[in-house]
Amino acid sequence: MDETPDTSANTPIYEVPLRALDGQEHTLAEYAGKVMLIVNTASQCGFTPQYAGLETLYKNYAERGFVVLGFPCNQFGSQEPGNESEIASFCETNYGVSFPMFAKIDVNGDNAHPLFDWLKDNARGVLGTESIKWNFTKFLVDREGVVVGRYAPTTTPASMASDIESLLDA
């Protein structure tokens, strides 16, 4: 099997069905041509304050074709116990999140969402590991739908700015 990611606008990342926090069905096709930062999130995690940094990135670069996409996950220490409505309220009230947030999903295991299976297949972690280790793992995807970076939960959103800018300027 060819391990080279599909770089066309029809890359599989754009076809995966998604459900937003408000229940609306989507695909990433509406973000084709944008630089995307895809993050598994949680509202009761030590990294939860990264929502503020993610929002700052989104506001700083949205007009240039950048979007942050948040995917709540309860697989790590049960740190996202709320339902979609509670998650939306928490994000807006505490961090002013205006970037798109999607329904709670699994990122590892038999019930992992197909988007995260695809992301993990296209960007391995440290030492070639596939599984996501914790909340706020981040995947940077270029305008053609190619995963160009995988960032640990400890990587702050602000420290990613130059990588994002280089993709926006490409």
TrEMBL record:
Recorded GO molecular functions are: peroxidase activity
| Thioredoxin domain ranges (all copies) | 7-170
**Pfam families (alphabetical):** GSHPx
Q: Which UniProt keywords apply?
A: Oxidoreductase, Peroxidase
List, in alphabetical order, the GO biological process terms annotated in this UniProt record.
cellular response to oxidative stress
The record ties this protein, via Gene3D superfamilies, to: Glutaredoxin
Highest taxon listed in the record's lineage:
Bacteria
Q: Which residues form the active site?
A: C45
User: Family assignment?
Assistant: Belongs to the glutathione peroxidase family.
Q: What is this protein called?
A: Glutathione peroxidase
Organism, per UniProt? Parazoarcus communis
